[in-house]
Write a structure and sequence with these properties.
It is built from 11 helices and 3 strands; from the N terminus they run αααααααααββαβα. By secondary structure, the protein is mainly α.
Amino acid sequence: MGSQSLTPSPRRGRESGRAAACAALAGQHVAKKSGSRFVIYVALAGNLGIAVAKFIAAAVSGSSAMFSEGVHSLVDTTNEVLLLHGLNRASQPPDRAHPFGRGRELYFWSFIVAVLVFAMGAGISLYQGIVHLRDPEPVANPTIAYIVLAVSLLFEGTSWWVALREFRASKGRYGYFEAFRRSKDPSTFTVLLEDSAAMLGLLIALAGLLGAQWLGIPELDALASIGIAAVLAVAAFLLARETKGLLIGEPAHPELGQALLERANADPDIESANGVLTIQVGPNQVLATLSAAFDDRCTTQQIEACVARIEQAARLHHPEIVALFVKPETPQAWQARLDALEPGSKPEPANGM
């Protein structure tokens, strides 16, 4: 069939308006449940208490590694507050200025978290390590530092286990690293990555303190601070890389597009469903466009009814779709659009060809 333009009737406009509104509300309802706030609250409470204890221990013992750990926990506390703010902003309903919601607010604040981890966490820890390495001082009264480290390991371990359990429940059949790469909700994997870095940082601080006390080499405490900076820098890089893709826009999982194609091809008035383009606009919010060739014998009313059926099926089976746009298009026109894309930038296969 030839490419055609459709002028929506008033009835069709009302149906599309209701469809978009229902889909948006469903997507927002799911978004409010995303990124388990419980995980963030647990991490926030633990990091706040631990940060105070670490700074007290650093002041008493003079440990560079302990001070770096205090900065680390303080940064993590700030990060949890920013993530909660991002979740609250992302869950706001659509309005005229933001017809598809504010889901990307969470991605923005997650990117700010990555910047803070690198600038404040890694930067200050590296500075402390270099200063104490150039002018090393023996660690005084390390007992309180050991007590704080032990308590911190307990609390950080609890927070890490809660975050791991939440992440494991949502990762499905994928491995941990693959699930991390595929996740569209940065709140859970951010907390998990932060807690993992915190656990590793605590072990490095403990090793530095033990080495400085038992071997009488205070430089080891300073090197531990530099090691903590390296851990935070790596964590910040991983967070920034993942949230950058979500922030500038990346497609939803290919399984979603494939499911839309299968349902569209099952409709009797669809000659061929050419392909689907999607973009993730929030943790559980997706914008989708479907290219489809309709049967040449279909009237305008039949095409309208077909589009309504496709939208209804999409809302029923995929509530994360905040809007679905169906474009009448020949397979040749769809292929021409794909061919016009830069090499290597074509969408992941979900085109049924």
